[in-house]
Amino acid sequence: MTQILIDGSSGGGQLLRSSLTLSLITGQPFRITRIRGSRPKPGLMRQHLTCVNAAQQISNAQVEGATLGSTELTFTPSTLQSGDYHFSIGTGGSTTLVLQTLLPALLHANAPSALRIEGGTHNPMAPPFEFIDQCYLPLLKRMGAKATVHLEKPGFMQAGGGIITANINPLKKWKPLHLLDRGELITTYGAILHAHLHRSIAERELTSAAAILNWSADQFTITDQPQSSGPGSILLLAAQFEHITEISSSVAQMGRRAEAVGISAAKGLRNFLGTNAAVGYHLADQLLLPLSLAGKGSFTTFTLSKHTQTHMTLIPQFLPVQFTAAEIAPGNHLIKVSKAP
Ligand SMILES: Nc1ncnc2c1ncn2[C@@H]1O[C@H](COP(=O)(O)OP(=O)(O)OP(=O)(O)O)[C@@H](O)[C@H]1O
């Protein structure tokens, strides 16, 4: 098969991860240059390298350039193999991003698989575990996927040490998904996971988020996670609708005020609630790949992130699909995926 050439300079780790997923599924080899070219520190970091090594392992691929800091990689998969796999990032790098690389591929394997991934489970700039469990996976299930995920132990940056597991059954055929509206609002809630930090930090996150969203304190839970290596804290703000659940999150970091954590997550959810679009800022880029595997689908979203745009350019290099994006109302875009002519 011809090797697909990917220029990684316009994006981050997602261009690499999605290339791995698509290569595993289609069997097409690829070469990516200028990996994470738009990031301040380009090249493979631990989380990306774990994705490459994991993808290599589940497909017995031939790989060149799989070293830390590498900015070029060649990946030639052999046969996708189901199995009982264990991957450890070795730092607090995001386990959910490793999971999102492997899950769609293992749905295409010949038998059930089990995954155990160690690292961070609640990281800045990555889906927190609950986002995978409550926002992303339910939509894949509606598309026919039979998979479960489980949070065995939370892990925060920098300490890591978190564990997520997944059970994945082979999928016969992807069903198209059309998500044009959210349906009725069912409930809203806030959750703070908190490890080895003074409880007053969680309370300040809560108070600042509650003020912006006009929520009462009894809509929140604060759960101490003494088993986590921590220290760490994440604020998750969820809005569950009939057809989708959106979670806006924010992670505590050294030197960041607790109020800033609350304000950032609350503004994220408020932005979403202030529009009619079905799909939130982050879910939009993550849905493009499964929808493309189905060959057909559509959703409304309120803004086109850089991740969404780069994904729309990448996916057609591997799959015979095309995307259209149209602003159907102020702040409401309709994205359609269809077979390429
Ligand atoms: N708060 C969040 N909730 C859900 N998803 C998130 C959140 N923050 C980021 N994401 C998702 O995580 C992914 C991050 O991709 P990105 O290309 O930035 O990769 P990366 O490998 O983490 O880092 P880098 O940007 O340094 O290369 C995107 O799919 C984005 O939608």
From TrEMBL:
Residues 10-324 form the RNA 3'-terminal phosphate cyclase domain. It is found in: Cytoplasm. Pfam families: RTC, RTC_insert. GO terms for cellular component: cytoplasm. Residues 180-272 form the RNA 3'-terminal phosphate cyclase insert domain. InterPro entries: RNA3'-term_phos_cycl_insert, RNA3'_phos_cyclase_dom, RNA3'_phos_cyclase_dom_sf, RNA3'_term_phos_cyc, RNA3'_term_phos_cyc_type_1, RNA3'P_cycl/enolpyr_Trfase_a/b, RPTC_insert. It comes from the Bacteria. The keyword Ligase applies. It catalyses: a 3'-end 3'-phospho-ribonucleotide-RNA + ATP = a 3'-end 2',3'-cyclophospho-ribonucleotide-RNA + AMP + diphosphate. Keywords: ATP-binding, Cytoplasm, Ligase, Nucleotide-binding. ATP binds at residues 100, 282-286. It is an enzyme of class 6 (ligase). Signal peptide: none annotated. The active site is at residue 307. NCBIfam families: PRK04204.1-2, RNA_3prim_cycl. Catalyzes the conversion of 3'-phosphate to a 2',3'-cyclic phosphodiester at the end of RNA. The mechanism of action of the enzyme occurs in 3 steps: (A) adenylation of the enzyme by ATP; (B) transfer of adenylate to an RNA-N3'P to produce RNA-N3'PP5'A; (C) and attack of the adjacent 2'-hydroxyl on the 3'-phosphorus in the diester linkage to produce the cyclic end product. The biological role of this enzyme is unknown but it is likely to function in some aspects of cellular RNA processing. Belongs to the RNA 3'-terminal cyclase family. Type 1 subfamily. This is RNA 3'-terminal phosphate cyclase. It comes from Phragmitibacter flavus.
